[in-house]
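Changelog note: in this version the structure field was regenerated for every chain. One regenerated record is shown below for reference.
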Amino acid sequence: MDTLKNYLGGMLERGADTFWEEYKPERRRKSSTACTGINTARACAMPGGTSPIYLLGRYCMGVRPTGTAYETFAVEPQLGLFDSFSCSFPVNEGTVWMDWKDGVLDVYTDKDGGVLKAAGKEYTLERGKHVVVKGR
């Protein structure tokens, strides 16, 4: 998590409003729009810049497939990394939403086939039903 914070946070500190195609923290730039620091045709934003979204979703929020193309899925958020969060992730032909605030995790999905692992227990996620868990 520290690596993500330092690397991605460095872009934000330098004025980024997207994730850059190339970022070298040791390279100082003259402006916040010159994302590479050199005169090239590189883009300041591109699809490859979405990798932080995958990393956060997979390793911090713990959303991962357990079947082909997220037909079934697991959710195991790393609650100790955050004071609070609110997020959503696509899972096959549905979405899973999570809210974590004041020690309470609320997970909701519009797709059957999910399992939540939190506070040392496992919960079946059912379409249209909230699962509320207290504690880490």
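Spot check on this record: The beta strands are 63-65, 73-75, 85-91, 94-101, 104-109, 114-118, 121-125, 131-134. Helices lie at 2-13, 51-60.
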